[in-house]
Amino acid sequence: MGAVTSTVAARFAFFPPNPPSYGVPAPAPAADADGDGEGVGAGEEKDKDSGVVELTGVPRRGNVEARRLRTKRGTEVVAMYVRQTGARLTLLYSHGNAADLGQMFELFVELSAHLNVNLMGYDYSGYGQSSGKPSEQNTYADIEAVYRCLVETYGASEENIILYGQSVGSGPTLDLASCLPRLRAVVLHSPILSGLRVMYPVKHTYWFDIYKNIDKISLVRCPVLVIHGTADEVVDCSHGRALWELAKVKYEPLWIKGGNHCNLELYPEYIKHLKKFVGAIERSPPPPNDESPESSAPPDNTQTDPDGTEDSRKSSDCREKTRQSTDRREKPRGSTDRRDKSRKSVDHDHHPDKPRASADQPDRPRKSIDRFGAVMKSVRYIDCFRVTTSSGS
């Protein structure tokens, strides 16, 4: 069974850039003054423990540090940490497909500055200069190792971390989020319901499917922001809408009119809405220590208008109780668009297919937003959640 799942994953999801867009120089061998090898071993072990490496092919920045991190599955992934002075929140970013840290470098630096957050990005196993091969299970181990580094090395805490998953990165993001009861928030950028559902409109969850986000989203207890382009021809916008419907604690979504799978960062409303979200999360109190779902969600006195959050409808609880029966849940999913049209949500009765009024009319965007868009236009970044027809990739 595992072999079949791996084959499905390889064909549906993983296309690391070849060659990688950046490098990591091999460490220079240490001198052994005694000639017995012990000194070399000790030095190498110390360097290995520190994990700090240098990235080549990207600009040097004083607030960026890169590390090699060993995962529980034996691979070593490369991660980069962008430190922002005075930041109280940390964003853990799982990038999309056909991208690596070299291509994401400038985006990560700009996001950290514009959102005033520390940011940790990483390459999945088999991507960039990370060792191993890409697989669903490896990506779960990858993000777990990066999260552990954030906590143990950089002093981040669960309640001050926002998980950000783009496209295929929504898989490891929701897998980790479903296990963290005190997580601060989640951002899903052009997310997928599951790997198989990207290809076919299946109504059942099969054992060989990968990234079963449709089954995990209801386990996430923190606010969830969904961003998706209405003209996405790779992962249909219905994936984002369905995941937002299934979220327990919803934040006002952003449906970018005309946006496709790979260019949402170019729209002014992207960074404006993301800044609004981060600001709302920063102002809201962190989740309490009590791990019950009710007390882990933001308190009822959180205002909906400025923050845009709302607790999910009571039917969400029923949906979670019956989540093992995929058939029963899949039937109402077909009416997602109708629910969006009729329900009174945080959009304040705006039509779900239309972006927010503030996003529709960015008459005079701030200079920082203009600069962000200009920088993003200069970044060569491609996210191709492609499907292969041949046996190889």
TrEMBL record:
Record field: compositional bias (Basic and acidic residues): 310-370
Residue ranges of every copy of the Serine aminopeptidase S33 domain listed in the record: 88-195
Residue numbers spanned by region Disordered: 23-51, 281-376
Protein name per UniProt: Serine aminopeptidase S33 domain-containing protein
Natural source organism: Zizania palustris (Northern wild rice)
Taxonomic placement: Eukaryota, Viridiplantae, Streptophyta, Embryophyta, Tracheophyta
